[in-house]
Design brief:
Elements lengths: L2 E6 L5 H14 L2 E6 L4 H7 L5 E4 L6 H6 L5 E4 L9 H6 L3 E4 L5 H16 L15 E5 L3 H12 L3 E5 L5 H6 L3 E2 L3 H7 L2 E4 L13 H4 L7 E4 L8 H10 L4 E4 L6 H7 L4 E3 L9 H21 L9
The structure holds 3-phosphoglyceric acid.
The site of 3-phosphoglyceric acid has 11 residues, from loops.
Length: 307
């Protein structure tokens, strides 16, 4: 009998677990749960005799892969897979997958939750501003970017996007104006929403040179990854530009300093909340479970990210 472990430091909604269990039961597999673990040793113990693992932002490094002696597949229930050591997995013959798109709307809605909260001065009674008519730049036009565009258009915003991997015609089909490079996006848009993955090319790529050219009211929203921001550039921007605002779903290392010195213009969720909705959990959880069953039953490797 195959065993699936759901290992989530940040647990799924109960409804998601029920759905994952029903996919697993139907396939005749055993489902195990390791939620809210605090020590890596708990993960190392839990993976020892399972065939498949479903994770979120949980770290699956070489040590975890080594401890998982029977492991054949690990599925990241979500988009970004920078938390899996892909090379180590490949070396061990473990297939790594993600579930692209399944939590994209949830992340996009959080972008607007944070933007509205800030535009209305965190509901302190003072006169705020509206999103309608403002320019928003979507940095990377993947699944989350597409959802951000849909919602932004609903608000009556002017929507621009930059993504070297997406054809301009695709953006135009979504009523989005494509731009030729990052500089043009940042120069044009008061709001910029980040949706780039964290990799060697993107780490610290959102730097001072780029954000300093944003127009007045510059508001940078990061629901992507901590690593893509140059954190020193953030401090510099906050000090130099009294209009600069940073809204993030991932606390930077200088969170304490930014919260202390720039509280009115800086907001960070206490824990990554973008994908933390029942709907996103259910969608990503079911997709992950189905991908595992299809992999074992039919050898289906669609969504493999470490080919
Ligand atoms: C993702 O890459 O899918 C998002 O960042 C969500 O991550 P989470 O599942 O840890 O909330």
């Amino acid at each position: 009998m195959k065993r699936i472990l759901v290992a989530t430091d940040k647990p799924f909604a109960l409804s998601a677990i029920r759905n994952i269990k029903s996919v697993s039961d139907k396939a005749g597999y055993e489902l195990r749960l390791l939620e809210k673990y605090t020590e890596k040793s708990q993960l190392l113990e839990a993976v020892a005799d399972v065939d498949a693992i479903i994770i979120r932002s949980d770290i699956v490094d070489a040590e975890v892969l080594e401890a998982a002696r029977k492991l054949k597949i690990v599925v990241r229930a979500g988009a970004g897979y920078d938390n899996i050591d892909l090379a180590a997995a490949k070396l061990k013959g473990v297939v790594a997958m993600n579930t692209p798109g399944q939590n994209a709307n949830a992340v996009a809605e959080l972008v607007f939750g944070m933007m509205l909260m800030q535009a209305r001065n965190r509901y302190d009674g003072k006169s705020g501003t509206e999103l309608m008519g403002k320019k928003i730049g979507i940095h990377a036009f993947g699944n989350v970017g597409v959802n951000v565009a849909r919602i932004a258009l609903g608000f009556g915003m002017k929507v621009f996007a930059y993504d070297p991997f997406v054809k301009k015609e695709v953006m135009i089909a979504y009523n989005v104006t494509p731009v030729d490079n990052e500089e043009e996006l940042y120069k044009t848009c008061q709001y910029v929403s980040l949706h780039i993955p964290a990799n060697d090319k993107t780490k610290k790529s959102i730097n001072y040179q780029l954000i300093k050219i944003m127009p007045f009211g510059a508001t940078l929203i990061n629901t992507a990854r901590k690593e893509v921001i140059d954190e020193e550039a953030l401090s510099k921007m906050f000090s130099e530009r009294k209009d600069f605002i940073y809204l993030t779903d991932i606390e930077p290392s200088n969170n304490a300093e930014l919260s202390r010195d720039f509280a009115a213009r800086y907001f960070a969720t206490p824990k990554k909340m973008g994908a933390q909705t029942a709907e996103a959990n259910v969608n990503a959880g079911i997709a992950a479970a189905n991908q595992i069953v299809r992999f074992f039953e039919n050898g289906d490797t669609t969504f493999q990210v470490n080919k």
